From TrEMBL:
Annotated segments matching region Disordered: 87-106, 629-649
The protein, known as: Putative choline dehydrogenase
Organism: Oesophagostomum dentatum
Similarity-based family: Belongs to the GMC oxidoreductase family.
Alphabetically ordered keywords of this record: Cytoplasm, FAD, Flavoprotein, Initiation factor, Protein biosynthesis, RNA-binding
PROSITE patterns on file: GMC_OXRED_2
Gene3D superfamilies documented for this protein: FAD/NAD(P)-binding domain, Glucose Oxidase, domain 3
One function term, GO molecular function aspect: RNA binding
Amino acid sequence: MPAALMYNLCHDRYNWYYHTVAQKNMGKRVIYWPRGRVWGGCSALNAMVYIRGHPLDYDRWEKEDGAKGWNFENCLPYFKKSETYSHSKGPSDPYRGHAGPQKVTRSSADHPLHQAFLEAGTQHPIGTTDDVNGYKQEGIGHFDMSIDKGKRCSTAAAYIHPILSRPNFHTTSGITCTRILFDGTRAIGIEFIRKVNFYGTENIDSYSREKIYCESDIIVCAGAINTPQLLMLSGVGPPDHLRAHEIPVTVGLPGVGENLIDHLEIYVQQKCTKPITLYNKSSWRYPHHMIKIGMEWFSTHKGIGASSHLETGGFARSSDDVEHPDIQLHFLPSTVHDHGRKIGTCHAFQVHVGNMRTKSRGCLKLFSKDPRRHPIIDPKYMDHDDDWKEFRKCIRLSREIFAQKAFDPFRGEELSPGDQYQSDAELDNFVRAKSETAYHPSGTCKMGQESDKMAVVNPETLGVYGTENLKVVDASIMPSIVSGNLNAPIIMMAERAADLMQGKHLPPEKEMTLPKFEFCEIAANPNGWGPLGSPPALDTSIPFQQYNKADRIGRVADWIGVDRFFYRRGNERYNERMYGSAANAGSQFDYVHGMDENNFQLVDSSKPVQRNPQRNFRARQLQFRKLLQKEQERQNSSEPSRCGSVAEETHVKVSDLDRLPSVQVRPDWRVIEEMDFPRLLKLNLPGVGSGEDIDKHQYGTLHFYDKAIDRVSVRTPVTLQRCGGNFYNVTTTEDPVIEELAQQGIGNVFATDIIIATLMTAPRSVYSWDIVAHRVGDKLFLDKRDTGGISNPVDALTVSETSGDPPSFEGAGINNAKDLATEALFINQNFRRQVLKRNEHPYVMAHPRAPFEEEGGESGCGYRYRKWTLGKNANGKPIEVVCRTEHDGVMVGSVV
């Protein structure tokens, strides 16, 4: 039962019940260190919080610690392979696994105090995160739990129990391995003892000694304490230390037992003004409550017993100079004392908080050569001055979070540290007296290069240096501790180790590590006019402005940069100055303007190409488009050629004559009427009422908008994330709902919101090159032109009335129309998903799935079909526009 974790954690039947030596920096306190002595090790004792750590932790392993091959690119595939995540998006999920043995569940966090903690994250600069194991670790969010259907999913439950019936798999329990047997430096077997006399005196004679020999590898997975102890008992370790205990030296490795690292944490506790904590429900003071919880869990695997209740938490950076989060918080809607061995006295809640990357390093030594005696454990807590600074920040950060408005209904007095602890010295005293282990010892047989004298394990083979057939796979080989709990990283390490030992590996996921979106540098002259540089070939007497009037009418700035301009030939530079376009002469954005503010015109010089007939359009639609294409070709062939002559001596083509402009403004024109832009912004057009929904034609699911996005600032930026999902490009004549409405006689003009928006905002004309009109009887369909045969197949509407060609494609350059449109589509699709609470239950419309969405491939969008009456046409018949509107999200409390 997950809620009974304190019983396992504090009972010596299930754990080794280790203790450290008195800590000189902790008031000479001896710290209790529970470690699992059951199948599954500490995964059978821990709080089931499943945290991978930060990607940069693993990159640091390779770059700084010498663990070649253990960067995040190589580790991510094994994180995904090992887990089945309850909120995974399937094989397309870039970060989460969906078919692994380790079951991982996203916590529900439905307790009011958990909800308050999550809300506090939106009010504090720390912010929130949708997935602490996904793209963005930093922030407050739901914790993942190694819980499957209300039961703990230890590594034994995930990996061992399902294969117990295999004929080639043998297990035994109730034994203690005393040493590894060597033939020279080659490991050939193990020696172990089994207790045969369970009564009487506790001496070595009450155990039987046995040996097992093997010809293959011996793999030690005893953990950060027992692994170095076993190696030293076997003669592998610091030579002087082994001789002091009269142990023959097999291989001298001074790093065995060194580099001991652990997470230390402190509890910040707040009294709760409402009786809603777990104090009454799970306290030993109320055994009848515990009996009720147990009966409910045993019968249903639900209720309070089905969770460890550390369901929310977060990660923060101690300062802006820190590259990635170094503070972790675990929130609990109750309080614990002395590892749960003491019970609370009132309704209260707490946060466990600590420094994730301590600079203190301890060590582990043998107490004696008797394998039954616990080793000497000295983590040397708080041995570095920076650790004290970090813990002060940890406590103050916790206080700031509890001080947020979300906790106003629950916040009582501070129980721990208490209001009397404010200064640095006072907080240091509190840490010295009350901090405890977070149960994450590691690093005592670290991976590293052979040139590192303290390295014990080869990172590429996991073999122990100086030995043969001996390998280690557990937390002891971590060269440095990760920023989070250790269960998930150790499972990943074991999965990768299994492949390494078989000479294989999963391919790295380079595109999934830390996707970043960075703006290109925009060239600008701080002095106003003129380029940033003036090479001799440039006539500087002509005024020049890199970004000119096109921007003022909505043209998107060109990000190619000034270098592109300087490498143009002289006449091309002149054309760019005259036309102001940073694109080619074939671009739909060319324009001509005068030198004053009131004189400009837009000119198009693009040409169409033959469409690709392979796309699966309806036969009638395809035939209609072919007729249009032939008619256009006939008209083009009948017009006189506009090309000039070719200057043979220079082989330079003379520029095309200007086409008639589709938009022109002259300074001598009289203003007849000014547009009422405020009314246009509200789409409050005269004579046009608000649209009405058509019956129950509402489809899809909508996620709620994350209001935390409104608080994004320069101080708390949010990086664009890669968010998986489905995208449907279904045009008007391909939409089965529009087809049904047309057959029912509802409406006579049909379009989508994208097409109507294009018509309303086109800067040249109300007729875009991408939009075609089909008339069927008395009905008009505004549709998207088929772009399957051009070089820019992305669904991006271009604006071009007089063009003959679609936008040109410049090949492999990153600034061609295709790549820019693809990038824009990528940004838009990912951004609209990033600003939503995708891990919460969505709002479901009348029909959960649109007819054109595939089963299981929902886009996460909502679709409403609406109708507007625009008055009457020339024949006196009403004009009724039916439009499919697409919605990306929904606000809490809004009416859809």
